[in-house]
Amino acid sequence: MRMQMALYFNVEDVVDRAVRKVRRSGQASSTDVSHESWEASLLRFSHHFGLNVPLYTHFTSPIRRYADLLVHRQLADLLGCGHWSCPKAPGTTTSRSPVCPPKRLTVQAAWCNRMRRETRRAQEESQQLFLAAWVKSNGSIQDKAVVLNFGGGKIQLLIPSCGLILTHQLQKFCPAASTWQMSTRCDPHETEQGSVRRSPLLTVKWRADGDSEQGDTVNLSVLSVCPVQLTCSSRGFYVKAELLSPKQAETSTGSSCTV
After folding, report:
1. 141 and 241: one domain?
2. Could you tell me if residue 10 is inside a domain?
3. Confidence band for 129, pLDDT divided at 50, 70 and 90
4. In what order do the strands lie in the sheet with 196-205?
5. Is the confidence at residue 257, as pLDDT, over 80?
6. At what angle do helices 62-79 and 102-138 cross, to 10 degrees?
7. Are residues 140 and 240 in the same domain?
8. Disulfide: which of 24, 196, 197, 254 matches 187 by Cβ 3.0-4.6 Å?
9. For range 82-93, the mean pLDDT
10. The CATH number of the domain where 241 resides is what?
11. Which residue segment(s) compose the domain that 246 sits in?
12. Minimum mean pLDDT among 67-81, 144-158, 172-186: which range?
């Protein structure tokens, strides 16, 4: 796909447009402007080394492009070959100051890193927004969740089918359960110091219905897999998960999350 984007425009078409524009403006005569000179100048600054394409036009990540420019300028300065933005004078042998002072380069690098984190966060939030819209259009989605962590009366879940990570209060995660309780259990494997390792355990119980004398009981620990019902919250455009009992998971007819 990237190769197709890079070759979407024909080099000759771009050069023809540039030549016609210059000739119409009257800035140069027909003899001063040639296709060969313009094409050579264009390919000089547009060739992509990694993709090995003559005209690179894939500009979907300008933050990455600016970071690459900073690296290329530093490499050109170390190699002593100069850079097109500040070319080295012919015959220059004396040492000169760097292209960019270290303090300024530190600020630019920190800004690039910050923008990269912000764009990644915006991308993740955008994906969650579209996922919430998709879940809302389907009403409810039944899927499997993996328990990642417990703490502070909350549970952290991973929905592997769509890569979504959710954090919920235990009370909201188990609304249909009669009781739930947090405890710890002893891990059968000892630590290197010989002490017994303890891990959190969530015990959830449901009331018995008319078909059975005892209600369902589920024990959840870290990395446990449990059935959940995904819905879109009415208070905001975000996805929430509710734990299903074994019977609810068997009889539920909700769609599965396959995005």
Report:
1. yes
2. yes
3. confident
4. 179-190, 196-205, 217-220
5. no
6. 160
7. yes
8. 197
9. 58
10. 2.40.50.140
11. 131-187+198-207+214-256
12. 67-81
pLDDT band at 114 (very low <50, low <70, confident <90, very high): very high
Show the tokens assigned to 226: 């449990």
Task: Name the domain count of the chain.
Answer: 2
In this predicted structure, the answer to whether residue 5 has a pLDDT above a threshold of 50 is no
SS (H, E, C) the chain: CHHHHHCCCCHHHHHHHHHHHHHHHCCCCCCCCCHHHHHHHHHHHHCECCCCECCCCCCCCHHHHHHHHHHHHHHHHHHCCCECCECCCCCCCCCCCCCCCHHHHHHHHHHHHHHHHHHHHHHHHHHHHHHHHHHHHHCCEEEEEEEEEEECCEEEEEECCCCEEEEEEHHHHCCCCCEEEEEEEEEEEECCCCCEEEEEEEEEECCCCCCCCCCCEEEECCCCEEEEEEEECCCCCCEEEEECCHHHHHHCCCEECCC
Return the structure tokens found at 53.
Answer: 């394409």
| Contacts of 65-71 spanning 24+ positions with Cβ under 8 A | 66/112, 67/109, 67/112, 67/116, 70/100, 70/105, 70/108, 70/109, 70/112
Q: CB-side exposure of 177: number of CA atoms within 13 Å?
A: 22
Last residue of a domain, one of 39, 60, 81: 60
Which of 19, 44, 60 is the C-terminal boundary of a domain? 60
